[in-house]
Amino acid sequence: MTSTIGSAQGTLDEPAVRAFVADQLAGADLDGRRICVIVPDATRSCPLPMLMSVLHETLHGRAAAVTVLIALGTHAPMTDEQLLAHLGGPYPGFMVLNHEWWMPSALVSIGQIPAARVAELSDARMAQDVDVVLNRAVVEHDVCLVIGPVFPHEVVGFSGGNKYFFPGVAGQEIIDFSHWLGALITSAAIIGTRGITPVRALINEAAALIPSRRLALCLVVQSGSGALHAVSFGAPEDAWAACADISAETHVRYLDAPVRKILSIIPAKYDDMWTGAKGFYKVEPVVADGGQVILYAPHITRIAAMHPEIEKIGYHCRDYFLKQWDRFADQHWGVLAHSTHLRGAGTWDPVEGERLRVTVTLATGIPEQVVRDANLDYLDPATVDLADPGSFVVPNAGEILFRLR
């Protein structure tokens, strides 16, 4: 049974949200249970301090144990100071952990998805056995409660729900596998796609192997404000679906015609290009052929905190890798996926080389030579006019998707 409050037409006041969350948790049979609460890191807009305070008021002394697990995927771990600010303070009796995706001792296998089933789920794009590995805290608790927002997403269509398990607190192999499946479909084709995409189908299949009871508090956050359009509680599949429908109304803007030049202003919550690249994903569908996207982020000084190999591989279209697979098959597929997502559509053949649909330009604090060596264009951020009348300017880029009518 899923309960939802709110709609695309407005935002909810805090007392209404607090009352709804408290009521849902009160009726969720959590007494004496060990609960793993899975929450996003700081790269997602989410009023976590408010929600965590309700959670603490409702569960402290009632649950046998509460562990808050930060769904990093393969992002950098958060420091104690960052966690304090992110969650809104210490919560006595609650344990807080980063998802240590790089530590084999923090992970456990819960089964396998056979190659034949993978072929079915992926519409025959991929066919190999997938080991389903995730953070052992998930299986060491009786109940897993996902708390997180739903936005258009470049890998899965819409984020949220079971995506907080895979890739949120998963092992790198299944993260790489799911991201490369999304890259085969391409970011521009899958982003903002409603319903069960092949990647969502794979994630749901993996989540069904989790032995713990799964619940989700899914959110539709007003981008840039942290206010909530809607909140849904229930099984992850159902709570996510309710919020994805509302996100499709609130987080997608439509243009009548493609634009030649886009200036995406990347907010400070994205502290490297691995995360800041969302400023490209969300506008790629509206860039004209031969157009340019400028990612303006003077605060970003590195391409990827946790994935330095991207600097050597560089940014390329999907076919650059597919048609030279012998060269790249041993690389992390999640890195290859990220590469294609930021570079966008294009072609490659051994005679003509790589031909790309649009130009991607970084106006960041990353050194010029590093940018150019990664196969991207460079622009000194000091020369950028943030009110350029010749550009389609996107403030607070990274969450709102732009599409053509």
Please render the helix and strand layout as text.
Blueprint: E1 3-6, H1 14-26, E2 34-40, H2 48-59, E3 65-71, H3 80-87, E4 94-98, E5 107-113, H4 115-121, E6 130-135, H5 136-139, E7 143-149, E8 152-153, E9 157-158, H6 172-185, H7 187-190, H8 198-207, E10 213-221, E11 228-234, H9 236-250, E12 252-255, E13 259-265, H10 273-276, H11 278-281, E14 287-297, H12 310-313, H13 318-322, H14 325-328, H15 333-343, E15 346-349, E16 353-356, E17 359-364, H16 368-373, E18 377-378, E19 392-394, E20 401-404
Parallel strand pairs: 2-3, 2-7, 3-4, 7-10, 12-20, 13-14, 13-19, 14-17, 17-18
Antiparallel strand pairs: 1-11, 5-6, 8-9, 10-11, 15-16
Helix pairs in contact: 1-2, 6-8, 6-15
Key terms:
single chain; 405 residues; alpha/beta; Rossmann fold; 2-enoyl-CoA Hydratase, Chain A, domain 1; 2 domains; seven-stranded mixed sheet; five-stranded parallel sheet; 20 strands; 31% helix
The order of strands across the largest sheet is 1-11-10-7-2-3-4
The CATH class of the largest domain, by name, is Alpha Beta
Q: State the separation between the terminal residues, measured CA to CA.
A: 35 Å
Number of domains: 2
Q: Report the β-strand fraction as a percent range.
A: 25-35%
Largest sheet: 7 strands, mixed
Topology, number of strands: 20
Total DSSP helices: 16
CATH architecture of the largest domain: 3-Layer(aba) Sandwich
Poorly predicted segments: none
CATH topology of the largest domain: Rossmann fold
- Spatial extent as radius of gyration: 21 Å
